[in-house]
Amino acid sequence: MTLNISFGHTTNIGKRERNEDRAAFAQPDAAEASRKGLIAALADGVGGGENGGEAAQTVVRGLIQDYYATPDTWEPGHAMQRILTALNRWLYGQSVSRHLPGGYASTLTALVFRGQRYCLAHAGDSRAYLLRGMELQQLTTDHVWSQPGMEHVLRRGMGLDEHILPDVSGGKLQAGDVFILLSDGVWSPLGEKELQRLSALYRDPEILARELVETALRKGGQDNATALVARIDAVPEENLADELAESQTLPLPEKLKPGQRLDDFEVEEVLHDSRETLLYLGRQTATSRLYVLKTLKTIMEGDARAKARLLSEEWLGKRLQSPYFPQIMPLPARNYLYYVQEWHEGRTLGQALAAGEHFSVTESVTLGIRLTKGLSALHRLDILHRDIKPENLHLSVDNKLRILDLGVAACPVLEISAPEEIPGTPSYMAPELLSGGEASWRTDLYAAGVTLYQLLTRKYPYGEIEPFQHPKFGEPVSPSRYRTDIPVWLENILLKAVARDPSSRFETAEEFRLALERGDASGISAPRRTPLAESNPLALWQGIAVISLLANLLLLYLLLAS
User: Fold this and answer.
1) How far apart are the first and last CA of the chain?
2) Among residues 154, 226, 221, 152, which one has the least CA distance to residue 190?
């Protein structure tokens, strides 16, 4: 079952000279609707002049068009916030640069329906209501001044100020729900009781929208009047993770040997054989090109979570169009559970370290710049890798660095790991993760810092950490203790990257990259040594107690000796 919505829309100029209300909805094809959902938006121009109508048109059209251009990995709320921030900046800039009378501003109330949920973004005094059963609930709060006589003056809206902070909320959908978007020219003259009566009386969205507008005008409404109604006819039973899980019904292939076939691929060799997964080098029969085939061992046949991880890795990889990640090959059909990605001859940095290879300062900095560029591409899509380490960084023979293994990666729209799981490799995990905290951009950057530290020193800043170990993090060891040719500026960058306190690390991958690119000119200072009173207050007081005890014993000895 797919998400099925019926829409209705009516607008009327009322007693005004021009209609400054704008409303629209989008119903894309089934594939796009599954990925991004359906959107409805209403805006009411501010200022009483023609600029208000243009601003409202810009907001509604821009939001709907840009929403479907955002990455699939973005949640609807995040996507709308990013789009509205950009639209607001443009509107405000137009108002300032063109000295427009009355400004270039509007209200905005928008809904995205995707899967089993809705997401609402709102700024201004247009309103959104939800009729569920016979209960009508107002979903928005009017952003107007509360002083007497200023109840219709906006304190927040699109284009009113340089910065915008829209209200963003959401909830679950139910079949039969009716969502109603109204300009103030409708809800103000109607009042709550009449709005409740009409909403319960008319179930057809087009008829309800028309009756709301016409009744508002009959009741003395002087303003433009616009209503947009969305009725939820059917709610899908599946979310994105469930859609991926459909492929879990595919069987896992038996372990293959060179010369055996997997659909359209002939196995050349086994590249990797871990506890759960198998990687093959396979040649596609139709093109004779080499690819990497990733699947699960047959012992994982009954592990639904392992299968979901493999499929989520494929789903995320398809959305990463970046030279710092191997590209996933589309498969029109497959008879087994596996996915296919590009093959690049080379080896991982982990393999290079295991083979005894040493990396110069220049090589390490160059790799660090490429790694942070890759993380920038990842983080822009709201994806966290959660397992950055040398074994997951591949250096091809043409000297290109690529980030591998999205098996434990996470993004807001797709989280496969169980809540109790802490994905990652302990020695590369930030202290807050080992204390039960949540992953973030900074935990990925911490792992990148540990990786560069290890490339240079073959050591870990806090020592190696074993699984199930609960380490106490003191001060990181300066990398120059292991290698004297590391310049001071690079040491300061590494120590900042692996700081125990997340707020002391780089905020973004771009900031980390710029520091590496600028080198000595980056201006990164040596980290402040944490006083013992902050890092280990228990040890401080134990030390004071021991000193006090020794002093008392000395005094006692002197008294007895005298």
Assistant:
1) 95
2) 221
The radius of gyration of the chain from alpha carbons, rounded to an integer in Å, stands at: 30
Cα–Cα distance for residue pair 465/477, rounded to 1 Å: 14
Q: Tens of pLDDT along 224-283?
A: 999 999 999 999 875 555 556 556 678 999 999 999 999 999 999 999 999 999 999 999
Answer whether 422's CB lies under 8 Å from 429's CB: yes
Q: What is the dihedral of CA 504, 166, 379, 32, to 10 degrees?
A: 170
Close Cβ partners of 14 (under 8 Å, ≥ 6 residues apart): 185, 217, 221, 222, 223, 224, 225
Give the integer Cα–Cα distance in Å for 272 and 256. Answer: 12
Distance, CA of 371 to CA of 382 (rounded, Å): 17
200/192 Cα distance (integer angstroms): 12
If you ran DSSP here, which 8-state letter would residue 337 be given? S
* CA of residue 121 relative to chain centroid, distance: 17
* Phi and psi angles of residue 134, each rounded to the nearest 5 degrees, phi first: -110, 10
Q: Kindly state the tokens that stand for 177.
A: 């729900």
- Could you give the C-alpha distances from 521 to 365, 445, 488, 546, in angstroms and in order? 14, 21, 11, 46
CA dist list (Å): 378 to 76, 140, 325:
18, 34, 9
Let me know how long the chain is. Answer: 562
Which residues 6+ apart lie within 8 Å of 478 measured at CB? 491, 495
Interatomic CA distance for residues 120 and 40, integer angstroms: 10
**What is the rounded CA–CA span in Å between residue 69 and residue 518?**
34
491 CB contacts (<8 Å, ≥6 apart)? 478, 479, 480, 526
Alpha helices in 392-508 (DSSP H): 431-434, 441-457, 488-497
* 249, two tokens: 């019904």
Tens digit of each residue's pLDDT (9 = 90 or more) over 66-117: 999 999 889 899 999 999 999 999 999 988 887 766 678 999 999 999 988 9
Select from 184, 202, 196 the least CA-distant residue to 136: 196
Per-residue confidence band for 532, with pLDDT thresholds at 50, 70 and 90: very low
